[in-house]
Structure formats: C-alpha cells, structure tokens
Design goal:
The protein is an alpha/beta fold. It has one domain: Rossmann fold (3-Layer(aba) Sandwich), CATH 3.40.50. It is built from 7 helices and 5 strands. The protein has a 5-stranded parallel beta sheet. The longest helix is centred in the middle third of the chain and has 14 residues. The chain is globular and about 45 Å long.
Length: about 140
C-alpha cells in the first residue's frame, strides 16, 4: 500500500455514479488509478447509504458500484494512530468554538496518519486542520 497517495472522500468517489459526472474528477480518478484508497468511515457511509435504499433499479445499480468499484479500493483503517490524531484535532478545535464533525475528523486523521492527501469537495469542513493536505478535484 506504499503507492497510496490519495484518500477519497465519499463525495468524490460517488461522483462517478452521477448521470453527468464532473469531468475533472473523472480524469483524476483515471489518472491516479492504483494510488487511490478510501477510509473505513467512507466505506461505512457508502454501504450504509446503499443498504438503506428502497429496493429497485437504483439500489441495484448503487450496490454494483459499491461492490465492484468502491469495494476494489484499499480501505484504510481507523487505527490507534488515527485515533490519537483525531483526538488532537478535536481538542485543537474545541477552544475555538469549532466543532469538527466526528466522521470527518476520523477521515482527516486517517489521511494525516498515512501522510496522504484527502480529496474532497467539502474542503471548507476540513480547512485549517494541522497536518492535513487537501485537494478538490471539482475545482480546475
């Protein structure tokens, strides 16, 4: 897994399921194939979202995507190192009156612990986290 450079947030990975996906995101997903991973909390979000959908063609299509596309990516765990970093991030934000959404904090901590870049459309929620490298493939 030493070739992993990019940690995909749910909003980036799921872009390819849209009827008209963002062209920039699709170019990057292709360009960096083999360097992509998802965090365990993203894997949870994808599976939970799919499993709670009503039965039908859309659920079947999303299920195929979750298993055949997302399920083929390495899933990086929320381990002891990530938990330590996550606690530090939350403690840094709390005195500033800034609440870091728990799952976003887990995802950020996994990226920091692994020294890889988090790719998200949601850069605003992650901005200012010490040690986190961010990329937004929806921009430019």
């Amino acid at each position: 897994m030493s070739d992993i450079a990019w940690l995909l947030d749910t909003n980036v990975l799921s872009e390819s399921t849209r009827p008209t996906p963002n062209a920039g995101v699709m170019v990057h997903l292709t360009r960096y194939q083999g360097e992509l991973a998802i965090a365990a909390p993203v894997w949870h979000e994808l599976r939970f979202g799919w499993l709670r959908m009503p039965a039908g063609q859309r659920r079947d299509a999303i299920g195929r995507f979750v298993q055949d596309v997302a399920g083929q990516l390495p899933v990086l765990p929320y381990d002891a190192q990530a938990a330590r970093i996550h606690a530090e991030l939350r403690a840094q934000r709390e005195p500033l009156g800034q609440v870091l959404p728990f799952v976003d904090g887990q995802i950020a901590a996994i990226a920091i612990a692994r020294g890889i870049t988090l790719v998200t459309r949601n850069t605003r929620d992650f901005a200012g986290l010490a040690g986190l490298r961010l990329a937004d493939w929806f921009e430019g």
